[in-house]
Design brief:
This protein is an alpha/beta fold. The protein is built from 17 helices and 15 strands. It has 3 domains: about 1-145, Rossmann fold; about 175-300, 3-Layer(aba) Sandwich (Rossmann fold), CATH 3.40.50; about 325-370 and about 430-540, Rossmann fold. It binds acetyl coenzyme *A (ACO).
C-alpha cells in the first residue's frame, strides 16, 4: 500500500460517473492517505493517436465541471475510509495563468490513469506519461504508473467533459468571493464547499474561520480543534487544490465577519445549513451602503457511515463524537513511574457522570479508587485532617455528633475561593497518599489498570503521578441542572460550584481521552468499551 497517489481522469463526465466507484475502489486498494484527482478531459483524437502526449491544459470552468467536482466529492464520501481526497482545480480557470508546475503538498507515489489503451503491447507510453505528469506536478522520487482496467466507453465528439445530461453553461465567476465556517476536522463537506468557492473565485477568496466565542452551543465544543489548526488546515487545502488564487483565511467573531465592512466582496458561498445567513448578511450590507452579494448554496453531503447516534449529513460534530474514547492527546512517557499498576486519573466537572463511567470501567476489569470518598475520610473525627480543618474553619462547621458537617463546610468554601484553597491544601496531599496506597493494594490483588476517580486531579497537580488522564465532559448548563437536582441546590449555588472548577476546554486540553455521558446509556457504554479496548492495545505495545 502506498500513502499518496494522483488519479488522472481523462474520460467524459458520463463515463467517469458510470465508473467512479470502480475507479475509487481500485485507487483505494493502492493509496491509503492522500489521493489527488486531476480532471483533464481529452479529445478522442488524443486518446487514439500514437503520440499520446498527455499535457496539463487550462479548462474553463463550466456548470458541468462544477457538477463533476461536486459529484466526485459526494461519491468519495461514501467510501467511509478517511482517505484525504483532493480534487485539483488549478487548471480550471478562465484566466490564462497560473501555469504549471504545480507541486502538490503531499506529493504522489503512484499515478493512476483511466485509459487502458495507453499501455498496449504494441505501444507502451508509460515513460512518456510519467515524464509529462512530473513536468506538471513535480514530485520527489519516481512515481509508478498504474493503468486501471476499465470498460471502453463511447468517445464523445467534443473534447470536453460535457455529459449526456445537457449542455453546459459557462460558470458565473467573481473576483472576490467569501465563505465562513468552523472547519473543525476538515471533512469532505468542507472540501466540497471550499472547492466550489474556489471555482467561483477569479482572484481572491476570503474564508472566515469561527473563533471560540462562537462555539459554546455546539455539540462537544470542547473538542473543537484550536483556531490556528483549523485555519492552517483550510489554507493548506486551498493552496494545494487551487494554486494562483489569493487566499485570506481570517478569524471571525460573529456570523458577518468581513462581509460587514469589505466593499469588494461580490459572492457569498453558503451551505444548506447556513442558507439563512445570506439574506441577513445582505440586509446588513444594504443598511451600510455596501453592495449586495450573490448567494451560492452548496448541498450537504450525507454521511453513509453514520451510526445511530450521529447526524445523517457529514458533520464535524459526528467526527467529534467518534473521537470520544480514542486517544486525543498522545501519552507522554513517564519514566519515573513504575509500568504497573497502570494508573488512569478520571476527572471531570461536578455532575459530569464520572462515577457511572468508573463503574463501567470496573466491570471491564479495572480496579477503581473513589477519591471523593477518600477526601471525606481524611477529616472524619480522629483522622489526620480533622483537627487541621476545625482549626482553620472553626467550631461552626461541626454537627451535633462532633463530625465535620460537609454541607456546612461546602457552603463556606464554595462562597470563598481563598477558603476553598485552604481546604484543598489540607485535604489533597492526604487523599493522594491514600489513593496511591489503595491502588497498590488493588494491584497486589491482581488489577493491572487502576482508575483513580478524582474530580480535581488536574487542579491538584497529580498528572505527573499518573500514566494517563481521562476526562468526562457534559455541557456546563447540563451540569448545573444535574447538581441542582442531585445536591438540592439553587441555580445560583449550582452555577457557583461549576464556575469554581476548571473549564471543560482546559481539562480536555490536558487529557489523553475524553468521554461524554450526555446521551443514551448504550452510547456511553460504546465510548467506554472503545476507550478500554484502545487502552489495552496501548499497554500491549
Ligand atoms: C484531587 C481530588 O480530586 S480529591 C477529590 C475531591 N475532593 C476534594 O477536593 C476535597 C475537598 N472537598 C471536600 O471536602 C468536599 O467536597 C466539600 C466539603 C467541599 C463538599 O462536600 P459535599 O457537599 O459532600 O460534596 P462532595 O464531596 O460529594 O463533592 C460534590 C462535588 O463537589 C465538587 N468538589 C469537591 N471538592 C471540590 C473542590 N475542592 N473544589 C471544587 N469543587 C469540588 C466535586 O466535583 C463533587 O462533584 P462530583 O461528585 O460530581 O464529582
Amino acid at each position: 500500500m502506498l500513502k499518496t497517489g494522483l488519479l488522472i481522469l481523462t474520460r467524459p463526465a458520463s463515463a467517469i460517473y458510470k465508473d467512479f466507484n470502480k475507479i475509487l475502489s481500485h485507487a483505494t486498494k493502492i493509496v491509503s492517505s492522500t489521493l489527488y484527482v486531476h480532471i483533464q478531459p481529452i479529445s478522442p483524437n488524443e486518446v487514439n493517436s500514437t503520440k499520446r502526449h498527455f499535457q496539463i491544459k487550462a479548462v474553463p470552468p463550466d456548470s458541468e465541471i462544477q457538477k463533476l467536482v461536486s459529484k466526485l466529492y459526494f461519491q468519495s464520501a461514501g467510501l467511509c475510509n478517511g482517505l484525504d481526497i483532493r480534487i485539483f482545480l488549478g487548471h480550471l480557470t478562465n484566466n490564462h495563468g497560473p501555469t504549471p508546475p504545480f507541486p502538490l503538498k503531499n506529493g504522489y507515489q503512484v499515478i493512476l490513469v483511466d485509459q487502458p489503451q495507453w499501455v498496449s503491447e504494441s505501444y507502451d507510453c508509460r515513460a512518456e506519461i510519467i515524464s509529462n505528469v512530473k513536468a506538471s506536478f513535480p514530485t520527489a522520487g519516481e512515481p509508478r504508473l498504474e493503468v486501471m482496467e476499465l470498460d471502453t466507453y463511447e468517445p464523445e465528439s467534443t473534447p470536453s467533459v460535457v455529459s449526456h445530461h445537457g449542455p453546459s453553461a459557462p460558470l458565473q465567476t467573481y473576483d472576490n468571493v467569501i465563505l465562513g465556517g468552523t472547519f473543525d476536522r476538515l471533512h469532505m463537506g468542507h472540501k466540497l464547499i471550499l472547492s466550489q468557492a474556489c471555482l467561483l473565485a477569479n482572484r481572491r477568496l476570503v474564508v472566515g474561520v469561527t473563533a471560540e466565542n462562537m462555539h459554546t452551543k455546539k455539540v462537544l465544543h470542547e473538542l473543537i480543534e484550536d483556531i490556528a489548526k483549523r485555519k492552517g488546515n483550510v489554507l493548506n487545502f486551498l493552496e494545494d487544490v487551487k494554486p494562483g488564487l489569493k487566499f485570506e483565511v481570517v478569524p471571525i467573531h460573529d456570523v458577518n465577519g468581513p462581509t460587514d465592512y469589505d466593499p469588494d466582496l461580490q459572492c457569498l458561498v453558503l451551505s444548506q445549513e447556513t442558507i439563512k445567513g445570506g439574506p441577513m448578511i445582505n440586509s446588513l450590507r444594504k443598511d451600510k451602503g455596501l453592495s449586495v452579494l450573490a448567494e451560492y448554496v452548496v448541498d450537504l453531503i450525507s454521511d453513509e457511515c453514520h451510526s445511530q447516534f450521529e447526524e445523517e449529513k457529514i458533520s464535524s460534530s459526528s467526527l467529534r463524537k467518534r473521537a470520544l474514547g480514542t486517544l486525543i492527546n498522545p501519552v507522554e512517557p513517564k519514566p519515573n513511574l513504575p509500568t504497573r499498576p497502570y494508573l488512569i486519573g478520571l476527572c471531570g466537572g461536578i455532575g459530569s457522570g464520572k462515577s457511572s463511567i468508573c463503574q463501567r470501567l470496573e466491570k471491564l476489569g479495572a480496579g477503581t479508587v473513589d477519591c471523593d470518598k477518600l477526601g471525606h475520610q481524611v477529616y472524619v473525627k480522629g483522622a489526620h485532617g480533622y483537627d487541621k480543618i476545625v482549626e482553620e474553619f472553626g467550631q461552626d462547621i461541626l454537627g451535633v455528633d462532633g463530625e465535620i458537617d460537609r454541607k456546612v463546610l461546602g457552603a463556606v468554601v464554595f462562597n470563598d475561593k481563598g477558603k476553598l484553597q485552604r481546604l484543598n491544601h489540607i485535604v489533597w496531599p492526604e487523599v493522594q497518599k491514600l489513593a496511591l496506597q489503595q491502588a497498590e493494594k488493588l494491584h497486589q490483588e491482581g488489577k493491572d489498570v487502576i482508575v483513580l476517580e478524582a474530580a480535581l486531579l488536574l487542579e491538584a497537580g497529580w498528572k505527573e503521578k499518573l500514566h494517563e488522564v481521562w476526562t468526562v465532559v457534559v455541557p456546563e448548563g447540563e451540569a448545573v441542572t444535574r447538581i441542582m437536582e442531585r445536591n438540592k441546590l439553587s441555580r445560583e449555588e449550582a452555577s457557583k460550584r461549576v464556575n469554581n472548577q476548571m473549564s471543560n476546554v482546559e481539562r480536555v486540553s490536558l487529557s489523553n481521552v475524553v468521554l461524554c455521558a450526555l446521551w443514551e446509556y448504550d452510547y456511553t457504554q460504546t465510548q467506554v468499551e472503545r476507550a478500554w479496548t484502545l487502552l489495552k492495545k496501548r499497554m500491549a505495545l
